[in-house]
Design a protein that fits this description.
By secondary structure, the chain is mainly α. It has a single domain, classed as Transferase(Phosphotransferase) domain 1 (Transferase(Phosphotransferase), domain 1). Helix 2 packs antiparallel against helix 4.
Length: 71
């Protein structure tokens, strides 16, 4: 969920782009970029922009082109 959605603020195209980036990250790595023990903690991490880092993944899992697309 995009941060503005979690804050109950109006959404726009940027919200959709955020969601697409999260989905692409998950498709490439098999993991959600935000890891928490509950939905609340996951929302909190997304609001803080505290996500798994690209640098933690080998080129064979997350190629440079995919990183650029996700960003």
């Amino acid at each position: 969920m995009a941060p503005e959605c979690a804050r109950n603020k109006p959404t726009n195209k940027a919200s959709d782009m955020w969601s697409m980036g999260v989905i692409l990250f998950q498709l490439y790595t098999g993991l959600c970029p935000f890891r928490g023990a509950s939905d609340y903690l996951i929302f909190k991490l997304s609001l803080e922009l505290n996500f798994l880092k690209f640098e933690d993944y080998h080129e064979s899992i997350l190629p440079e082109g995919a990183k650029a697309l996700i960003k």
